[in-house]
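Researcher: Quick test of sequence recovery. Tokens follow.
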């Protein structure tokens, strides 16, 4: 019988998959203290995790661990080097949350932009969420431009978008910019003061991807100087953000607490997919599209 640790509560629809399966025993814990997790994880075969940190120290203590199933699509909270060194498979909920996040982006966009027409939108990052957002924006008769060096011009054109090859050169043409990239060493503080200065005065900047892609200090300064019209953030460099974070008091910033996926339907899908990924891994049925390739 495989032992599974659920780190952070997930939807009951996901838990029900384990309750009805004789091949697994499981425990749900909400304590994310490192020492506690090191003890709990040491004899587990699989785990699911939400946003708490999974450090090298914790991973190295799990001698039986074969699979980590991330409740979400980002994995900057997991030590990838340790995961690879220990030959552990990392899976994500690749299909569960695109709809909810795309809807939340539009909700933020509409809430900020009640005052003017928007014609050109740039989607920076063209994974499942970016593609879902493009479909919704096309229904609003917007011109959609896509920046993603890993996606071909043909693929973007096929769904009605226009590929942008140089992010900096396109900024002064966009009425709205929505970020949908992973956080890594190449995207950390990608959006800084100098880049924001190149944007249109009426531009709205949205980040529902990962905190840290936008330099929050630079964004606050740019908003105070009226360099852009407004910004919508669902994610922050530090979560929850510090009470002294100036963006919390900036009237030009529309903020939500990393809650884009917090609909009943989306949380249900995420809970189910998180657990199903674990089950499928041990049944040798886990789809390749849900496995993170760690370089």
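Model:
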């Amino acid at each position: 019988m495989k032992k599974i640790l659920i780190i952070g509560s997930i939807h009951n629809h996901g838990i029900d998959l384990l309750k009805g399966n004789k091949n697994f025993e499981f425990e749900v814990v909400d304590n994310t203290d490192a020492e506690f997790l090191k003890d709990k994880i040491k004899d587990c075969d699989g785990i699911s995790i939400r946003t708490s940190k999974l450090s090298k120290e914790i991973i190295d203590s799990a001698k039986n661990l074969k699979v980590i199933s991330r409740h979400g699509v980002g994995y900057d909270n997991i030590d990838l080097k340790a995961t690879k060194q220990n030959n552990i498979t990392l899976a994500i909920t690749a299909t569960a949350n695109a709809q909810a996040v795309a809807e939340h982006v539009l909700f933020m966009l509409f809430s900020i932009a009640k005052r003017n027409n928007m014609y050109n939108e740039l989607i920076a990052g063209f994974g499942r969420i970016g593609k879902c957002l493009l479909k919704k924006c096309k229904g609003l008769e917007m011109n959609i431009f896509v920046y993603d060096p890993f996606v071909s011009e043909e693929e973007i054109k096929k769904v009605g978008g226009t590929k942008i090859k140089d992010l900096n050169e396109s900024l002064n043409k966009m009425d709205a910019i929505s970020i949908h990239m992973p956080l890594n060493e190449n995207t950390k503080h990608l959006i800084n003061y100098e880049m924001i200065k190149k944007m249109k005065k009426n531009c709205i900047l949205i980040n529902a991807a990962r905190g840290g892609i936008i330099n929050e200090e630079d964004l606050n300064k740019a908003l105070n100087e009226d360099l852009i019209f407004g910004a919508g953030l669902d994610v922050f460099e530090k979560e929850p953000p510090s009470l002294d974070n100036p963006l919390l008091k900036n009237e030009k910033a529309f903020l939500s607490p990393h809650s884009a996926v917090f609909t009943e339907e989306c949380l249900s899908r995420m809970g189910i997919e998180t657990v199903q990924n674990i089950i499928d891994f041990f049944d040798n049925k886990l789809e390749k599209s849900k496995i993170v390739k760690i370089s």
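The mean pLDDT is 95.
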